[in-house]
Every structure is written in structure tokens, then in C-alpha cells.
Amino acid sequence: MSKPIRKDAKRSRPKRKRSGGSRLRSWGGLIAGGVLVVLLYVGLFYHFFVSPLSFRWRAIYGEPDYPAGFDVMGIDVSHHQADIDWDRLRNANIGGHPINFVFIKGTEGENLTDENFNENFYRAHENDIVRGAYHFYKANRDAKRQARFFLHQVHLVPGDLPPVLDIEERGTKPLREFQRDVLAWLRLVEAEYGVAPIIYTGYKFKVDYLNTADFDRYPLWIAHYYEKKLRYEGTWSFWQYTDCGRVDGIRGTVDLNIYNGDMRRLMGLTIPSPSEPTE
């Protein structure tokens, strides 16, 4: 006799084995997904971090980009460039063009003179490079004292570029007071030399804090790095386009600049002799 089937008994089902092809397809999908994630990450990293600074990368590794359409080249130096070999520098070039002018740090705040100023200032003149001198402005210090200190330490002569006010910090004063103090420095120094000083500042700083008619009468030396074309829409005289330049006679990097004009116009910007009318 056959045995009766118990109601609670479960039928056993044979386990299905996973084929090798299915496993391969699963691993292939995971690998493809991982590759897509990596490519997406690389693309985003390049777009947000590498591409905007591509000029900087090339400059650091010895492939600087020189703005097209300009022939009058210059540099600016301070103690950060240490001892400069001026005999080599006078024959150096930037993108095939000679170095026509140099801005030299003179003073900072109310009582600091750049340790290499006197040497650099004398040697630039000795090597027939048009020279200028700048003051690094300290926003929370007295503007008139800074102006008087600059005038005491720096003695420009006819043929030199106008004095330069380097403005990079905003300080804690209200904007109107800050602007009033900057104008006080500019006007005091202009009264001494009879020429409008040059304002040096960054692109964003100019737009945010110095973008009024009071400042538009001063020649502008603007810093805006790693751009093929300066985006500032106003009138400008000098453009500092990289801080990663390399020239013969200077160890390490140096700021590179262009003048927005030819040599005749550059010389017309310099401090005139007492008998010469100003342009």
C-alpha cells in the first residue's frame, strides 16, 4: 500500500545554479558603472578646478600665455625677488619683447621700506629700464601719514613713471571713509609730483570698492590673472596678467605686465621735466 501524503509536507524544489554568463554580465555592469562615475568625477574636477586655472598650470610649468596684440612689456619686483642680476635682466625678454619698464616696491604702511628698494631703484635707472615705485597701502592706517612716508623715502625724477598706490585690502572702515582716505593719499602725492598717481588693484577689488568717478581720473594698473583678454570694461593703462612669469636675471617667478599702448605713449605718461608740459 502507498503511504498517505501528509498535508504539512513541503515539496522540495531543486536549486537553480547561476550561470557563468550571468555573473560576467553582472560584473561588467558594475565595472561600466564605476568607469562612468570616474569619468564624471574627472570631468567635473577639470571643469571647476583645472580649466579656470589652465593658464596658471601652463605658467608654472614653463609655458606662459602672453596676451596678444601688445608690445610694451614690464615686470614688478620687491624683496621677494631677492638679488636681481640687472646685467642679465636688461637683455632679457618676455615673449620675444624686451623688458621696457619695471615697477619697484618702495614702501608699505607708515614705516616700512622694502629692503631691496634702493638697490633695485638705482640699478633699473642704470640699465635704462623705465622705472616706477609703489606704496603698499594699509587700509587701517592713517592715509596722510602713509603718503608723507612714501614721499620721504621715494624720490622720483623726470623720466620715471608716476607714483603708484597699491590697494589690495579693504580694512574695517566704512566704504565711504575707506574711499575718502585713499583719495587723500592720491591727492597729497599728486600735489607733490604734479602728475596723477597710478592705482594698482585687482579686477574684483576695483569693481567692488573703487568703481566711482573719483577714481576714474587716475591711470589704472589692474591685476587679473590667467585670462586671454582683460575683462575689465573701463579704461586701463597696465595689466598684470600673471604672477608666474620667468625672466633671465631673476631666480624664481615674477609678475609680468603689459602697457596698453606703445613706447611713445608710455614715455608720455612719465614725470615731465619742469620745462615740459604734462599731457
Q: Helix segment count?
A: 9
CATH level-4 homologous superfamily of the largest domain: Glycosidases
The appropriate CATH architecture of the largest domain is Alpha-Beta Barrel
Major β-sheet annotation: 8 strands, mixed, barrel
CATH topology of the largest domain: TIM Barrel
Uncertain parts: 1-5, 46-62
Distance between the termini: 128 Å
Beta-strand content bin: 15-25%
| Integer-rounded radius of gyration | 31 Å
Keywords:
279 residues, alpha/beta, single chain, TIM Barrel, 2 domains, eight-stranded mixed β-barrel, disordered N terminus, 9 helices
Give your account of this protein's structure.
- The protein has 279 residues and is an alpha/beta fold.
- The protein folds into two domains: 41 residues; 203 residues, TIM Barrel, CATH 3.20.20.80.
- Helices cover 36% and strands 19% of the residues.
- It has an eight-stranded mixed β-barrel, surrounded by five helices.
- Helix 5 runs parallel beside helix 6.
- The termini are far apart.
- The N terminus is likely disordered.
Could you give a short description of this structure?
With 279 residues, this protein is of the alpha/beta class.
How are the secondary structure elements laid out?
Layout: H1 20-50, H2 54-60, E1 73-77, H3 86-89, E2 93-94, E3 97-108, E4 112-113, H4 117-126, E5 130-136, H5 143-153, E6 164-166, H6 175-193, E7 198-202, H7 203-209, H8 213-216, E8 220-223, E9 238-245, E10 254-259, H9 263-269
Parallel strand pairs: 1-3, 3-5, 5-6, 6-7, 7-8, 8-9
Antiparallel strand pairs: 1-10, 2-3, 3-4, 9-10
